[in-house]
User: Fold these one by one.
Assistant:
Number 1:
Amino acid sequence: MPVAHHEGEEMLESGYIRILTDACATGRRLTRDERESLRAGGERAAEAGTGLRELVREQLTAAESVRTGLPRQAADHLLSIVAEAVDVFAEGHERAQRLAVRRQEAARREFIDDLLYGRSDLGRLAERAERFGLLLSHAHAVAVAEGPEPYDDGYPVTRQVEASLLSRFGDRHLLLTTKDGRLICIAPGDQQDVLRYFAKQAYAATDGGRVAVGRAHPGPGGVVHSYEEALNALDLASRMDLDAPVLHAADLLVYPVLTRDRQAMADLVLSVLGPLRTARGGARPLLDTLTAYFDTGCVAAEAARRLSLSVRAMTYRLDRIHKLTGADPSDPVHRYTLQTAVIGARLLGWPEREL
């Protein structure tokens, strides 16, 4: 290979043959300066992209040229000097490789941060994205998975999910990474099969974690938008006690609409549900009753089962709610107002949090 040849020539010109000859002539080991020179040569070779195998071959070729003119005793010493020299040279080569990997990891992490936070010039961001397999001129969607513990790029869970995706889809212009302890998959917006598979694998790998999928949006800023939608879906699931393992932001658009005017929602909650605070035990038991009632499609028997109540007790609670609030949960006209207020209470953390 041409690169290896040039590196071999540089190695010979830099005094490698002289180092071997002098060491064999005196029977000494390599000096500190010689070791440092060889180590630096290994670093330069790695930075030039020359493989260690080619470099070792060049070293052995150079050693053979030295051995030809040496007396037998000196030639016997040559082997130990070459072994020492190869070891030092490899040390420098490996050090440079590790440094290059750390630089690549740092560049990748900086890119991920800029991409997910919408920092940096969008044109420049699109150029950098191509190095990582993303074409930001297309629409992209983001899926975010969280589990019982935080995850980083090198964690077994991360490697397991990544291996599954690569095995299934190969090079599909997708990117798997981590951010703030969560697994993140960025894929072209027209490849929802990738995100569905990621959600399935992440759910299994995180031992029952939760995955949220943002909608597809175009351009470099689309990744940020989709990522924020996924994060908001996870936050919403936590506040609303949604138990679905996979959440789609497109299915939850009603909730941001309801909370867009927070003060209006707080007024609705206090106006409609405020009287429940006068009940024995406070508002929480009756609020849970309404939640179960609406979650079961207003089937009192099923709601009673969920709350471990008798149907009679459930009916009593619903009647008590009607008397306190003036709104009948079984009346379609009143039901919408009550259910909207219940959703608002869950979103705002009432009654535990003052509004």
Note: The CA atoms of residues 137 and 219 lie 5 Å apart.
Number 2:
Amino acid sequence: MNPADTGASTTVGAAPAVPAADATPDTAADATPDTTADATAGTADTGRAASSAGSRMTPGGPGYRRMSLALFLAGVATFALLYSTQALLPLISGEFHVAAGDASWTVAAATGGLAVFVLPMSALSERFGRRAVMTASLAVAVSVGLLVPFAPSLGVLVVLRALQGAALAGLPASAQAYLAEEVSPKALVTAIGLFVAGNSVGGMSGRVITGWVAQEWGWRVAVGVIGVGAVGCAVAFRVLLPAPRHFRAGSLRPRVLLGTVRDHLADPLLRRLYAIGALFMTVFGGVYTVIGYRLTEAPFSLPQGIIGSIFLVYLVGTVSASTAGRRVGRLGRRGALYLAGATTAAGLLVSLLNSVVLVLLGLVLITAGFFAGHAVASSAVSKTATHGRAQASALYQSAYYIGSSVGSTVGATAFHAQGWPGTVGVGLLAMLGVVAITLLGTRAAKAAARHRDPATA
């Protein structure tokens, strides 16, 4: 979850951290930039671009603080709502008398709804505007959030959560595009960093707050508190966010959109990056969906508030993601992915031991490895795509949240059947998949190198 969380939030912000020296020959796209087209377009638009850049928001300038706070609050609301039930699954299981795998659908439905709708929402924002789509998305999501505490059955709760996830898809689909259009290029990374911080704070605080509130008043009050808080964030967002000045509406052309999507899915490197993102999130979604069940049982028997506080481990992920660029500089992209996979696998193994301290250490390693792998893979998507970068990033987010949904349900089902070792087994298989895909990329890079320079064969 991007950094945290949170998904969608590292793609643009992390891209500059991947150095040009790591332009490995995984795909022809890295080696053949369309410099002629770029030069022609740049010559034609020089005067207009200079004028546009001069009117964009900069730190300390008009509207910048309002914009930063607005998108920070939008990030908080989005990820607090998206994962509001994750720390509460044992309580939901108890009230509805269902197994962990059934209760986990309250998480999987929300992330699945986001995964399915993030690409259509990105297209709608091109036609109707970033601010309009973000406002509508938050309005629908918080409205549904106020209904969630009153769900009479698990089935109704799952449907409401799916609707909530679908509505929230409008935020990651539009926020980064708004920033790219309205903020000065020199301030863009900082602005995106604030949005990322909101994602991280929302994802973490939503779980921690619900844990402590539920311990005293139950899960329904806990998700109600998150819903009311999200209403406040949504209202402040709409009041604070400056009107766009540089958005130019486009037409909804499904044929063009589908052509771009086909191009991205036909790229072997992008397919590998999408799969890697999904596999890392499978582990993360499974572990954090099930950990509450494990810690409420013997020999731990921890109270709900303490279990909710476990999610403070997310802070480790924020640090891990922010330093991923340096690891790529030292090890290369594939080396950084091997290290992230190994760290995650080590954490899974350590978490098998029946000690609270060692389980916590395992979660630290899992979280650090996941966020590092997610940062490397998502930033490589932006670097690899030579056109339609918004759609390339949206496809990565779709794969990422599909991984979350799969991890939540499969990890919980494995826990119900085999206990914690079953969930760990699912995670280790996913990390083997990451290693296998990365090895495939290494072979493809070597083959491309031999093709360009047969003397090295």
Note: Confidence is low (pLDDT under 50) at residues 1-51.
Number 3:
Amino acid sequence: MKAAVYEGPRTVTVKDVPDAKVEHPGDILVKITTANICGSDLHMYEGRTSFETGRTLGHENLGQVVEVGKAVSKVKVGDWVVLPFNIACGFCKQCEQGLTNYCLTMQPQPDMAGAAYGFAEMGPYQGGQAELLRVPYGDFNALRLGEDAPERQLDYVMLADIFPTGYHATEMAGVKPGDQTLVYGAGPVGLMAAYSAILRGAGRVWVADHQPDRLRLAEEIGAIAINTAEQDPAVVVKEATLGLGADNGCECVGYQAHDPQGQEDATLTMNGLIDSVRFTGGIGVVGVFLPEDPGGDEAQGELEAQGKVPLDFGLLWFKGQHIGTGQAPVKRYNRALRDLIAGGKAEPSFLVSHELSLKEASSAYEHFDNRDDGWTKVVLHPNGSNSSSHRASAAKRGGRRTTGGSPEHTLEELRQEAKAQGIEGRSHMNKQQLERALNH
């Protein structure tokens, strides 16, 4: 079978590898039709982890079951399934508590917890950017999808990781209806955290980043964009909240956070949130931080290479804030989020910018890693393109909404118009609020 294989820093090749197969009675074999490239994949792609050469990448996977082991009773051949990136047994101490992100059975090292497809330090399992994927304990790990799955793959594949991960950030932060929430990072997970905060009823959501294309997407879902190349998020948020700060915040960047000039600083987002979130507020951290960073010494410093990040702990303590951290237990959320998608309440596919064949994986990694303009989320189709979803997503990306035959205004144009009309609060209104105020 064909697979996207890591060959060393910034080198991914598509090559023939041994076919995945059922190895245990509880396994299922899935023909992968849709697999995302994740920001976490880029840490491995750049050589900033211990990921081994020769392994297949990919932990955001969706497809159709083609074979089941003798012990599988629920999942059937022909079922469409999306696969949590956590590989879990369902019966260990952690799984019984719903902590499938820290499964003890599937992690082969006795002093470690947690397993995933194609991921550094999370077991020997191959990734799903391939034509076939072996899924252990298929009855437990596979989330079955409805009859709309073939046409809505771009929505449902987000349930493998980034939609539940973004939601997990808001859960750990304690986002409630009416809250004011700050999200650091407008990458796919940050946008999913902002989207989740809005779904949970947050009254106002800011998204801080310096990538204009990603900030535009944040505005499209109703968030307020903060371009960190031009503004300090703490200043913006405090000005809008009588100096108190946001009710809560989400860290969706991780240890390779960097300023607009490209200088890495693992403290950038965490200390920014400690400053920006009010007294007793919550912070949910889903951005990746690692105990070992092979490239960290050169990029940041000796301490950072060991995962030691100097936090403003005194201010954190003084403000009585609380922090939740770690990878998402995807199964805790994916069924409910699936039903939001099925019911038309959520469409996470708004993220998708590119759908490519598996043979284009090398180029896709290069563009995504470069943060090239417009490359916000890349989807690979190992077994041929999903033409119906491709048409829908292309139409969504290509057609700007118009009002009365006129092209859509940018957020800055709307703010200038509001200023001219003397509308108060314009700097803290999102795009939809400004359009309503201006009767657009």
Note: The two ends are 53 Å apart (CA to CA).
